Amino acid sequence: MAPYTTIPLSSATTSGNSPITVNAGAWVTVHATDTSSTVQDEIWLYAYNPNATAIDMSVRVNQTVIGFSTTMARYSIPAYGTLLVVPGIPFSGAYGGTVTIQCYALTGANPVHVYGYVNRIS
């Protein structure tokens, strides 16, 4: 098995597991992979809803160089609940660009908090 290092999501504001706030109205980048196609980022991503009603959230994958973008999944995050939204899926850079994982809250004015970690496999 290739060696790996656990690292924080690239958009986390500290080296720990700080949450990334996702609001309705704009896609938020939560992680960008390395540009190398030989380095894989195994992404584990959780969404927490601190609100009294469920909030819908989408997760998408983008590759900037070739212009690829697809919505991977749509979830209903339960009130006061936590949900695993990216279960250790590996991504790697391609064509000299990064792959970004983004989230978008579809409903409500209240935010969803996204947190997780990356196992970088080289």
Please describe what this structure looks like.
The chain is an all-beta fold. The protein has a single domain, classed as Jelly Rolls (Sandwich). It contains no helices and nine strands. The chain has strands at 4-8, 20-22, 28-32, 40-48, 55-63, 68-77, 82-92, 99-105, 112-121. The strands form two sheets. Strands 1, 2, 4, 7 and 9 form a five-stranded antiparallel beta sheet that branches. Strand 5 (55-63) and strand 6 (68-77) form a beta hairpin. It is globular, with a radius of gyration of 14 Å. The mean pLDDT is 86.
What's the main sheet like?
5 strands, antiparallel
Backbone structural class: mainly beta
Count of domain modules: 1
Q: State the separation between the terminal residues, measured CA to CA.
A: 10 Å
CATH fold-level name? Jelly Rolls
Q: Using only CA atoms, what is the Rg?
A: 14 Å
Report the CATH architecture: Sandwich
Order of helices and strands: EEEEEEEEE
Summarize the structure.
The chain has 122 residues and is mainly β. It has no helices and 9 strands. Strand 5 (55-63) and strand 6 (68-77) form a beta hairpin.
